[in-house]
């Protein structure tokens, strides 16, 4: 039988993977129209910390929090 601990652990892992996937596939990481004399970087212009904010990753945060709650309740189950 699947316990709350296993379901919680799976939800936390899925939440972390969802957050990583959304950060990786957000868009192009380099600007193809940059000048050759400019410093080359993979960091997109004007992205800042917004790529990792709650607005973009709320489904992942919900999955992680729900998984943690299930892990806590599962630890009290005997």
Write a concise synopsis of the structure shown.
The chain is an all-alpha fold and 78 residues long.
Major sheet: none
N-to-C CA distance: 14 Å
Helix coverage percent of residues? 55-70%
- Taking all Cα atoms into account, the compactness measure Rg is 18 Å
How does the overall form come out from the CA principal axes? elongated
Q: DSSP strand (E) fraction?
A: under 5%
Ordered list of secondary-structure elements with their pairings:
Elements: H1 4-24, H2 54-76
Protein model, in words:
The protein is mainly α. The protein contains two helices and no strands. Helix 1 (4-24) packs antiparallel against helix 2. The relative contact order is 0.28.
Top keywords for this entry?
78 residues, mainly alpha, elongated
